[in-house]
Amino acid sequence: MRTLTSPAEPAAPPVPPEEPGRPPRLARIRPVAGRIATVLAWLLVIGALLLPNELAKVTPWTFLRIPIEAVVGIAVLLALPPRPRRVLALLGGAGLGLVTILKFFDIGFYSVLDRPFDPVFDLSLFDPALVFLTQSIGRAGAIGAVVGAVLLVIAVIVLMTLSVLRATRHVVTHQRTATRAAAALVLAWFVCAALGAHVVSGAPLAASDTAGIVRGHAAQTRSSLRDQQAFEGVAAVDAFRNTPGDQLLTALRGKDVIFTFIESYGRDAIEDPLYAPEVGAVLDDGTRRLAAAGFDSRSGFLTSSTAGGGSWMAQATFNSGLWINNQKRYRSLVSSDRLTLTSAFERANWRTVGMMPGVTKAWPEGRFYGYDQVYDAKNVGYQGPAFALGTMPDQYTLSAFQRLEYGRAGRGPLMAEMPLTSSHAPWAPLPHMIDWGDVGDGSVFGPMAKAGDSPEEVWRDADKTRAGYRTSIVYSLNALIAYIEKYGDDNLVLVFLGDHQPAPLLTGKGATHDVPITILTRDRAVLDRISGWHWDPGLKPGKQAPVWRMDTFRDRFLTAYSPPR
């Protein structure tokens, strides 16, 4: 009798041998993890190639384009033998990492200073940036930010190099597919370029952003290296270099002349709808109040050599009659014997004073400018709290100036330069006006600093940042107007202006570098000397008011108030 048997079951597939010493689950996960790592490597490389160097251009659509650098890179790698291919991948990965870091620097500089990073000149700006961080978020926070930035730089270079190496292995492993894909992408790139196809406005499908940025910075570096020679040629020409003191500023004899810079007071403060209603109201009210006190004024615009920061360069431009738009030019200027507005007044026998509340350490530039006396943050008797980079409220600065210089009995004619810093970023915390008799040593401002928002709170919210900026400009203007209304006399000639526009975060992309400038006095003859300038009456220049480059002011001013030559 035969035994019935069930049909034979299909044989189980062979189980691949386990890797010695590797758990079964890990052996199954490893191929999946490898594919994910490859995808991430490609995303990182393509993302870095398509990343713009301006924050305003970063949109999701930006990364849906064809980067010609990747297509060419694939073609070159496929054509090379193994050893040169690996060397090129290593160098290309590290290079792409450096270019990505350069893009991040550009993004930061465009956001704050409205220009790209300059590798030749801008390395010297890291020290002022550290000071800004320290005074904004404290020493520990600044150190943490620096350490984090260094680690980020290292991480970007390492990750980019590893990603390019992994992408290269993937291309070689799938050589036939990669060759076909490269050929198709080359054709698509040229077709899109010829047709001018765009994903969105300003973002062409045929992308060559990274190559363009590298070329741009290479040209910028060549130009920057030649800049010093060009600057020296311009600086050698000075129409007033040898003018005797008795032939300078004769129309201002006996006058007290004060040049006051209001930090970040730009054209947008009086024209942008976000700020103009409040700031314009202060200027209009100030015009009426000062007119009632016997003062008349004229206003126009100057185009600053910088934006978003670099106040010292704008002030140097204004003072020297030279275009100071980088740190190398600034250093060359302050080590020269160039005649400045300050030294012209000194040569003509005015007492010259620098009231510099923002100076917190040694400042040898004071000797270059020709000040008889420099007052800084440490020698004006301020006992109140710090207000970030403002160091002290503008009302205290003006009160100290009155006590130490302008209000002194029996003094001779005075020329002073006085930056007001309460409107300096980060615009938090902010002071408010009090009775002049209550200013004292500044300790009265303590509760204001504690009650105000912190810089971190303000800068987390763009609307708060703009509101803080607007409030700070209103405060600085009110302080100056109130000071002139209370203490100004018949001999006063006040010139006040902005040093630069605030950061593009506040002005928007494409804003001018113009700043308002005003001359105010009770002496109509002083204003008659500049009637040919065609400036607008009042403290607020109109939209059609004349605009000059800031470096032209020195010669125009000296010409207007000195005898014809």
At a glance:
The protein is α/β, with parallel strands linked by helices and 565 residues long. The chain contains 19 helices and 13 strands. It has helices at 24-50, 68-79, 82-113, 126-173, 175-195, 209-235, 268-271, 276-292, 311-320, 327-334, 341-347, 365-369, 394-406, 446-451, 455-459, 462-487, 504-507, 524-528, 553-561, and strands spanning 66-67, 198-200, 203-204, 206-207, 256-262, 296-303, 351-356, 373-376, 414-420, 492-498, 514-521, 536-537, 547-549.
Describe this protein's structure.
This protein is an alpha/beta fold. It has two domains: 27-223, no CATH class; 246-561, Alkaline Phosphatase, subunit A (3-Layer(aba) Sandwich), CATH 3.40.720. The chain is built from 19 helices and 13 strands. The chain has helices at residues 24-50, 68-79, 82-113, 126-173, 175-195, 209-235, 268-271, 276-292, 311-320, 327-334, 341-347, 365-369, 394-406, 446-451, 455-459, 462-487, 504-507, 524-528, 553-561, and strands at 66-67, 198-200, 203-204, 206-207, 256-262, 296-303, 351-356, 373-376, 414-420, 492-498, 514-521, 536-537, 547-549. The strands form three sheets. Strands 5, 6, 7, 8, 9, 10, 11, 12 and 13 form a nine-stranded mixed beta sheet that branches. Strand 2 (198-200) and strand 3 (203-204) form a beta hairpin. Helix 6 (209-235) packs parallel to helix 10. The longest helix has 48 residues, at 126-173.
